[in-house]
Amino acid sequence: MGSVAVIMRVMPESPEVNLEELKKALKEKLPGIQDVKEEPIGFGLKAIKFAAIVNDAGGETDMLEKTIGSIPGVERAEIIEVTLT
Most-buried pick from 28, 47, 80, 81 (CB within 10 A)? Predict the structure, then answer.
């Protein structure tokens, strides 16, 4: 079994969500995330984009999305890309 790099975009519930606190919460829940960046979406809303290394076993990406979705202030999390490491 190998590992894959998952590029994700996290959408906050509103432009009023403190992105620094959201980044901190993401790093606490997912200590292995890397390359965390803010990405402008429009109308003052910014998303958080990052990479995570997970096992390529079935269900790992679903668990990642579920974990991120449980963080307060997150509207949704979406996978942008999955590549082999």
Answer: 47
In three-state secondary structure terms, 22 is helix
**Which helix (DSSP H) or strand (DSSP E) does residue 52 occupy?**
strand 45-55
Return d(Cα 53, Cα 61) in angstroms, integer: 10
**Domains of the chain from N-terminus onward:** 3-84 (3.30.70.60)
Q: How many residues does the chain have?
A: 85
Per-run averaged pLDDT (10 residues), the chain, 85 residues: 90 94 94 92 92 86 90 94 87
Cα 3 off chain centre by: 17
The residue written with tokens 């901190």 in the block is 24
pTM for the predicted model, two decimal places:
0.86
